[in-house]
């Protein structure tokens, strides 16, 4: 099951990913609109932080209630790297990434695993120019930054959702072509 | 005598003004006291004047400069009013410390009620960062390389929490905003950092009373074998971040927990 709205969620639904464990994929609701922190209105922040977080919490709870064995959150890397003019989106991204760890700690005894895949910001419609350089080094892989949902992300979802990944939980897999490598 | 030594004799924060939210007790009080000892004018921004005013009085009694302003960090108007009153009184604002927080209580994520387990934390934590940062920004920008925005986060914002699962995302969001603002505000010299403390705050001491085993559990997993002191352990880190000594440190989280978290 794919939870979330936007082009990335739609692409993942269209991919019709088959997994051998019951799985909920939660695509973070990320605002791609660059706004200086000083200019954020209450409405901006409600739309970029409060509502997406409430939706993510509800999606996690629904997955647990449904007895799914795997929860996988998809977020952009900007929560880890920070992004000027996108503090509102970075907050939501990192909050969901760390909520994954809390859920993994609580629900592990139920046999559930909860993990995160951090992807290139452009997959959330974020202009790389708005993020700026996050490393002194260039991306490790040629073509990194373009990001291809079917080729780059779907195989990771299958891997994390597989029964073989039963001991993998609370982890963040960063799939951005080697742009953000820390820690 | 070197110029650095002379500076320290006068106080590393002499002539600067700091607002510390949630300074009526615990970590906020420790930070406020520490900044005051180095010469800062300190505003005790507290939701309850009956806790904040005694802290301000104690600082003044020991030769420092402090006032208490009743402030609710979940209200944009209240925070703006605090900043305006601070600038009126002291002529500027160089250091904003957002520490105030409430609403954390143990819960199961699957049963979490958004009104009960989320709203207060989101509002005082993340929205509080928005309100304090935006209100302080014109004055921090004017202060240039002396401008400081310090956010009190938590180790739980890095490693998650099995006991208070929705506390962790709030504290993680604060760290992400700090990183973003470090990049956004760096060009004018303002630094933005977080402290992630484990300290003997009233909330933690209450938790110890409820579950005595918790104290020994924390101490046993802490290499330094004790819970941090809000003033001497946490306040000192805040002082470093507020002072010129940290002028090339920005976007960082200093985990101040006696060595428990070693994940970076």
Question: Summarize this, please?
Answer:
The complex is a heterodimer of chains A (183) and B (264). Chain A is built from six helices and five strands. Chain A is α/β, with parallel strands linked by helices and 183 residues long.
What can you tell me about this protein's structure?
- The complex is a heterodimer of chains A (183) and B (264).
- Chain A has helices at 7-15, 42-65, 78-81, 87-107, 128-131, 149-161, and strands at 2-3, 23-27, 70-76, 113-119, 172-175.
- Chain A is an alpha/beta fold.
- Chain A has a five-stranded parallel β-sheet, with helices on both faces.
- In chain A, helix 2 (42-65) packs parallel to helix 4 (87-107).
- Chain A is globular and about 45 Å long.
- The model of chain A has no long low-confidence stretch (mean pLDDT 92).
- Chain B has 264 residues and is an alpha/beta fold.
- Chain B has helices at 3-10, 26-37, 49-61, 76-90, 114-143, 156-159, 167-185, 202-210, 212-221, 230-242; strands at residues 17-21, 41-46, 65-70, 95-98, 148-152, 191-197, 253-256.
- Chain B has a seven-stranded parallel β-sheet, with helices on both faces.
- Mean pLDDT of chain B is 94; it is low at 1-9.
- At the A-B interface, helix 2, helix 3 and helix 4 of A face helix 5, helix 6 and helix 7 of B.
Strand content of chain B: 5-15%
Q: What is the string of helix and strand elements of chain B?
A: HEHEHEHEHEHHEHHHE
Radius of gyration of chain A: 16 Å
Tell me how many strands of chain A there are: 5
> What would the principal axes of the Cα set say about the shape of chain B?
globular
User: Assembly state here?
Assistant: heterodimer
Succession of helices and strands of chain A: EHEHEHHEHHE
Class derived from helix and strand content of chain B: alpha/beta
Q: What is the residue-mean pLDDT of chain B, rounded to a whole number?
A: 94
Low-pLDDT runs of chain B: 1-9
Q: What overall geometry of chain A do the principal axes of the alpha carbons give?
A: globular
Largest interface: A-B, 46 and 44 residues
Q: What percentage of the residues of chain A does DSSP assign to strands (E)?
A: 5-15%
Low-confidence stretches of chain A: none
What's the Cα radius of gyration of chain B? 18 Å
Helical proportion of chain B, percent range: 40-55%
Query: What composes the largest sheet of chain A?
Result: 5 strands, parallel
Strand order of the largest sheet of chain A: 1-2-3-4-5
The biggest beta sheet of chain B reads: 7 strands, parallel
**Alpha-carbon distance between the two ends of chain A:** 31 Å
* Rounded average pLDDT of chain A: 92
